[in-house]
Amino acid sequence: MTQNIFKIAIAGAGLMGRLLAWRLSTKGHHISLFESGSLEKPTGACHTAAGMIAPLSELFHCPLPIYQLGMQSLQYWPLWVEELQQLTGSDVNYRQAGSLLIAHPQDRTELQQFHQEIKGKLGHQSTDQQQWLDNNSLKNMEPDLQHFDQGLFLSSEADIDNRKLLPALLSALKKNNVTLWENTAAECSPGKIHTENQTQSYDLVIDTRGLGAKYQIHGLRGVRGEVMVVETPEVKLHRPVRLLHPRYQLYAVPRANNQIVIGATEIESEDMSPISLRSTMELSSALYSIHPAFAEARILETRVNCRPATMDNLPVVKSEPGLIRINGLFRHGYLLAPALVAQVEQKIHQPISNTEQVS
Ligand SMILES: Cc1cc2nc3c(=O)[nH]c(=O)nc-3n(C[C@H](O)[C@H](O)[C@H](O)COP(=O)(O)OP(=O)(O)OC[C@H]3O[C@@H](n4cnc5c(N)ncnc54)[C@H](O)[C@@H]3O)c2cc1C
């Protein structure tokens, strides 16, 4: 069956915009991508993120659709990562080694609570996805965490190095002859992109501007998140580890070169100023409580950004003839983006209805 080829403009070259531009360009559509900032040095939430693809971990706080879309994304990621690697030669360190939940002995009920909550939401489906580890199996999996007597292993979860993925996607866009406009702020209307100097017409415009589309998406807000990147050769982790604690949550995502991304705060504020002393202390002391050798870790970088979130923290895919808006990926961009790309691909090949879809 022959497919229609469209002239499509995408506004916002964050995670959603880049991934969508790449996938649609591989289908032969003529894509133009507009970014208000630099393409080589992205500044959206995508650049700050930890890159976890963790449907089960997120299900604890989130409704079922986030989990379901996340599980769909887990089908796409390995295929797309391989295709990206073949096209660009870039290794984006996609890793599906599961993630590990731990708690200090006095907080053990946190693990139980997590386990019960997931079982309650997923029923028997959860059985083969969450596995209790005793001290011995924990020691085999993560030798440096051997002083914890228990853990919960979430086998399906994955992560990706976003600092490698974003440039790899840019290089794929160049190879696919996507027309790139950087330092060009865009406004979107059906079939039209408006920039400072001109208005251009397209068959379809897709708005993926994250918080840049704040006034077009009812109730869109930013939720401040802070992360730190530390380096130590003394503690080796092989997968994302989450420390469950009644007061704060910590994750540690190991990266190449003995680096670990630790995070993240979640503060109802659109303040983009540097990380606070309190957040630095809380993240550091939580990390230190996992292993004393973290005391000598070096802080390489602190990152702050705001996650684009809707009032119910669910993503929105809103269509009208000539215009699709995708937003509200909140803390789930890497978890949801492939599944949302697949929804957009479907919409492009269907007659567009005036529906607002909360996935
Ligand atoms: C601290 C932190 C940790 C996170 N960790 C994870 C994680 O582990 N896993 C996960 O799944 N998600 C995580 N996220 C969430 C994830 O980063 C976001 O959900 C995702 O980046 C949203 O993608 P987006 O493309 O919609 O928006 P963004 O990534 O913010 O991109 C929007 C782009 O649009 C551009 N833009 C804005 N206005 C205009 C305009 N007028 N014209 C043209 N371009 C414009 C911006 O410059 C930007 O490049 C985290 C986020 C934060 C802040």
From TrEMBL:
The keyword Oxidoreductase applies. It comes from the Bacteria. It is an enzyme of class 1 (oxidoreductase). It catalyses: a D-alpha-amino acid + O2 + H2O = a 2-oxocarboxylate + H2O2 + NH4(+). One of its GO terms (molecular function) is FAD binding. GO terms for biological process: D-amino acid metabolic process; thiamine biosynthetic process. Its EC number is 1.4.3.3. Pathway: Cofactor biosynthesis; thiamine diphosphate biosynthesis. Its cofactor is FAD. Keywords: FAD, Flavoprotein, Oxidoreductase, Thiamine biosynthesis. Residues 7-339 form the FAD dependent oxidoreductase domain. The keyword Acetylation does not apply. Belongs to the DAMOX/DASOX family. This is D-amino-acid oxidase. It comes from Microbulbifer pacificus.
